[in-house]
Amino acid sequence: MDKLLSRASALVGLGPACTPSITFSDESSRKRVTSYKDGQQVLVFTDKDPVAGEVTLKLDPGKRLEHMGVKIEFIGMIEMFYGNYHEFTNLVRDLDAPGELTQTKVYQFDFASVDKQYDSYNGINVKLRYFLRVTVARQYSPNVVFEQDIWVKNVQTMPEINNSIKMEVGIEDCLHIEFEYNRSKYHLKDVVIGKIYFLLVRLKIKHMEIEIRKRESTGSGSDLYNESETITKFEIMDGAPVRGESVPVRLFLSGFDLTPTYRNVNNKFSVKYYLNLVLVDEEDRRYFKQQEITLWRKEL
User: Fold this and answer.
1) How much is the pLDDT for 12?
2) Which GO terms describe its biological process (predicted)?
3) 32-34 and 41-45: which strand pairing?
């Protein structure tokens, strides 16, 4: 009787589910990063890299599973904080026709020319992710679904134009400073070098600091939402400056979790970075000047 019940369950699709897994063909030679999803380690790919490997559907010995087909998808998706999902890439490969699994089975897959023009991104209100999804379709039971993320980083070319930044700011008859940075565009391992010149000081300045601020913008028009966070801040001067004094700035970018500047990614979000110069007086009033910089990826 038990055997008859087991056979009947399998025939109507109620048998045991299989356990899918994905192995990439070149994973031993690829770099890994910690992703946004459960802190797992995922493989790094670039836009030019093929995504290929094997899908294994594991069945326990003696078990069987009827299915309506097996497929694998390569998906690029933007996930917004308010629950909206936007797929910008979806390629499908059929791995198996409807049938019955009676033992563990391995399938080959290859997405040789899939578009990966955008970098993976894990932000405050938006995520951009690439992942493979294996689906074992079943007629009378829930489908068996397995997802495996990858991380995409793309190397960019050096900007042809990279002018220095030089500006004068101040408060009339109270404060006049001039600041300059050696460039306006920096790669992620670069060093920001600059100087702050005090041309007029009639405020009792207590200290001065510089910040790297990140601004993430999602949506557009009336639905545009900006979220800012301070990546780092450090003090570059302690004590009151005098007229004619200059303060050097040297900021190493390699120690921070930065991404390239992203502008209007798939018409869904942008990410910009700013150098924020902050002066604090003896009454803890803050005076600041913000300057946008462009970040780009020189190497993986």
Assistant:
1) 41
2) intracellular protein transport
3) antiparallel
